[in-house]
Structure formats: C-alpha cells, structure tokens
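Sequence in, structure out. Go.
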Amino acid sequence: MYDLLIRDGTVITASQKTEADVAVKDGKIAALMAPGAKAEARETVSAGGMYILPGAIDLHTHLALPFGGTTSTDDYESGTRSALCGGTTMVFDYATPEDPEEPLVDFLERRQAMADAQVCSDYAFHLVLNHPGEKVLSELPQVMEKGVTSFKVYTVYDGMMVDDGFFFRLLEKSKELGGLVCVHAENKDMIDLYVERYKQEGKLSPWYHYMSRREFIEAEADIRCIHWAKELDAPLYIVHLANKEGVEALEAARNQGYDILAETNPLYLRYNCQIYRQENGRNYVCSPPIKGEESRQKLWQALKAGSIDTVATDHCPFLQAEKDWGLHDFTKIPNGCDGVETRYPYLLSEANKGNIFFEKVVETCCTNPARIFGCAPQKGTVAVGSDADLVIYDPAKEVTVTNDILHSKIDHTVWEGTKLTGYPVQTYVRGGLVYRDGQFLGSAGSGRFIKRAPYRKA
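Output:
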C-alpha cells in the first residue's frame, strides 16, 4: 500500500507533459501510473484539471545575513516557510563566515546547527569565500567532504571581494577538487568612481544606484571572469546575470565549448531600470541592479534558448523602515529584495500565458539546479526514486500578489500588484503536505541538510 496517491493530474517535467497518477511511499516517488490504474493508498488526492510539478529549488538566498548595517529580514524559518508556500521545496543559502581565523568546517557546522533547528524545507549551503588566502584554499577539501561543493566569491564590496589572483587560484583548486565557483561579477572601481561622482553632484535618488552600476560595469566583470575560466578550462557559474553584453559573452564562450553557466533573477525578467524612477524605487535596490529594457529582452531570449541555466531569487529582503534609510541617499539603502515565494508562481504564470514553455520553467527552476549542484536525481524532477517533493498547480487560479498573502517576515513586497494566472495550491516535501490553499502546514526544524556530490559537466 502506498502512503499517498495523487490522481488525475498532468505531470510536467523538464522534458515532457504526461497524464499520470503519482504514488508515494516512504517519502519517495514509488510509481508513475496510467490514470486510474488500480492502486491502494492511505491517502488519495485528486488533481483533476491540475498540474503535478517537481518542487522548485532556489539556488540563491541570503537568510539571516548581516549586511549594510542590519540583518536580512528572513531567517531560516520564515524564509523556508515562504519558499514552501510558493512551491519551492529546497533552498541554497550563501553561508558567509565572519571570523577569518575560524576553520571553515567549524563555521559550516555551526551554521548548519542553527539552520537545522529552524528550516521548514530541505536546504544546502554554498560557501562564501570572503577572507581570501592560502588558508582558505587549503581547507576546501574538508569542505567538499561535508557535502558543500560550491564556493562563492565577490568582485565587489569592501571586506568581501577577492582580487583576480585569488579568483584564478580558486578556479584552479575548485576544478581539481570537483567544486564549482559561483561569482558575483561587477567592477568595484567603476562603481566607486560613479558613486563618488554622483554624491558630489547631489544625484542621490535610487535612479543613480542603477546608473552607478549600469550595464557596462557589470559586463566588464562578467567578461573578465569568463576570460580566466576559459584560460583554465574550469567551470564557472555566474550568479544573477542581468545585462545583455554579459549574456553575449556567456553565449560566445559556450559556443566555443567552455563550461560557463549562469543564473538570472526573476526581477530582471519582470522589470526594467525605469522602476528606479518610481516613488518607491528604493524598494527595488539590489545588486546588480535591474537593467534596461534591451537587457530584459535579451535575458528572456537567453532563458528560452537555454543559454541561461537557472532562475534564482537572491532573496535578501529588508524591512521598509530599513529601505527608508536611503530615502534621500541611495548609498544608504540596504541592497536586496524578496522573491523566494513568488519566483515559481511568476514563471509558471508566464508559461500559462504562453510566454515560455512549462517544461522550460521546470528545467530552470528544478531540474538544472539539482543537476548542476549535485543533488539530482534525488531532487528536481518527478521520477521513480526521487524525493516526493511535489507541487499541485491550478492553472485556472487567478492571484494578485500582495504582501498580505505571502508568508515571510517582510512588511512589503516588490511583487505587489503582480497579476498571476495559475498558482500552487498544494506543496509536499518527501510526501508530507506542508502547504494548502494559502495555509502553511509545515513545521520549523523539519527540513533536512542535503549533502551534495561534486560538480560534473552535463
């Protein structure tokens, strides 16, 4: 007897749509059966007229992150609760060390203990390497043994950024170990130059956050990082890619056979830089900033074509009062926005409207994240033997996003007023119901840390 049987739905994976009943036992998908096939289960759920999707994976969150004089609003409990209510059943958090003398494995164990007590969904870590040096490189084999197989570096931010020499050595070491380097690519010197210029000119509105980090400033760093990766024939993952020229450099490298991967952010698909001219433009301040319409269109084209591998949120929200610190000075605005609950519904709505295939949404939000970051086929698909992380999606449900319907700790959302066609109505983690019709049914501490395999090129 099965534990759960979901009948009469349309199963959508990265490769196909299939009419099937989904059977679950012991937290795993036990069978995919023809509709109406004879089977017994302790619980049977009807998904007639609905889609059965894999739970999504958000590869880019910053939970309980000290940043910009405060801490990001969502902790591991509220962030993962919010994720589940939008159909995301696993999150990757960027674990950021604070003490350069603390061994990296000790830091990860402390961070995992904190997260384990709070998480409602399954999770994994990327490790931020914000204290560059030989000590850090020497500790990476032990980090890999802990199942943390991806490392992030920044080319911006005082006290966080790495220079080209360390970045090059990290690419070498990571390739040797089977790790994957993730990079936040912007040109710090050019940002500093423009910020100082705009401050002297009294140009302090949120528009000048965009202007100080506009397209060519991000693109130069994308191109530079791709250049080093090509020289070493090392894999590289560019996070939150936002600009047309960077996408073109990515596509050129891939066409030459290099293993350069990239994610983009749903905000970059939804809005363009004119959002910073609005009265509440400060709420949309993130880095890299949302770019111009030409870049937005290029990102959509690249996503559909497969040049962009994943869509992730960079979920790092702050309270309205904290965003208001920069009401009259964009340099004081904490950088970060919400998205962990709205990314999957937004992209699925775009599929519902015919702007992208459902299979492509599943590929970029579920299957590619699991494959690239070493947790497939356990995660990211609807297949026999995979974890029963499932979403029942009602394509007819109309929803207008307001902060009141979301489940995080923030007091505003950059998705306010977005009209969605179709919405998740049930979410399951390993076969257990954690969300239904707007109500969270899970519990803190129920999620699991997922150890990941080394990176392998597709």
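Check: The mean pLDDT is 97. Residues 55-372 form a domain with the TIM Barrel fold (CATH 3.20.20.140).
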